Amino acid sequence: SVSGPILSSCEYIRTHITKPLSIGELADRTGYSEYYFSHKFKKEMGCSVNDYILKEKLEQAKLLLAGTADSIQSISDSLAFGNRSYFYSCFQKHVGVSPSEYRKQNGKL
Hints:
The chain is mostly helical. It has 7 helices and no strands. The chain has helices spanning 4-15, 23-30, 34-45, 49-67, 72-78, 84-95, 99-106. Helix 2 (23-30) crosses helix 3 (34-45) and helix 4 crosses helix 7 (99-106). The longest helix is centred in the middle third of the chain and has 19 residues, at 49-67.
């Protein structure tokens, strides 16, 4: 079972996915230390905070790739990936295809 503070953190991550998020900021919101928050999050969610944030960013990227005509660069920028190369490599690694290939396969436009 997942505790209220961790569920609240997951919801905060989902609703603020376009902003740079840090473990420190999330820990502060719960009143936990960074170490305790990270440990508790991993224990309850089965993955690290950073892995969860990346997973949520990639889910949002998939929605944007399939449902908008936004450029891959603007999607990368809007999800605070830092640079397109990092976005591309994360997407390829976790989704199994490149962002442009994903858009070709799943785009509705």
